[in-house]
Amino acid sequence: MLLTAIRTPLSRVLLSVCLVLFSSLSLAQVEIPEAKVAQGIEYISGGIGSEESDALLALGKKWPLVLEFSQDHPQRPLWVADVTVKIMDQKKKVVFEALSDGPIMLLKLTAGKYDAEYSFEGKVLKRTLVVEEGKFQKQSIVWPQ
Length: 145
Hints:
CATH superfamily of the largest domain: Immunoglobulins
Strand content: 35-45%
Helix content: 25-40%
Low-confidence stretches: 1-27
Mean pLDDT: 85
Order of helices and strands: HEEHEEEEEEEE
């Protein structure tokens, strides 16, 4: 009886460890798009499919800026790709410009205040970005239907 009581908690611990390991392995198997550089700023864009988007969002917590692109829809916003991202410093100088290959873009933008323009299907949305040193920021950009 005592041996059974000892095994039960131990088996639960072992099962928990196995579940954590296997879930980590499945995330590790997702191929994340390669990092690129535009105007000296490193970025990754993608997020096609739920596994890749989950992996990018998890990785994004280690990047200064995560952008999510979607279009409004009656049920829920739908993620979009092929978004032109243009970021300007306070002197209106373009410091970054690239096309997002998917609905998620991670950027290693230095701390500062920026003006951003996001263009999708000819519609431009403007936003202000404030990137703080050592802090993670996520900005969701949603185009009206």
